[in-house]
Amino acid sequence: MASSRSTIIFVATFFVLATSISATEYIVGDASGWSLDFDYQTWAKDKVFLVGDSLVFNYASGAHNVAKVNGTGFQQCSTSFSNGILTSGQDVVPLLTPGRKWYICGVGKHCELRNMKLVITVLPQTMAPAPSPVTTSASSNMAVPTIHGFVVTIAGGLLSLLV
Question: Signal peptide position in this chain (predicted)?
Answer without folding.
Answer: 1-23
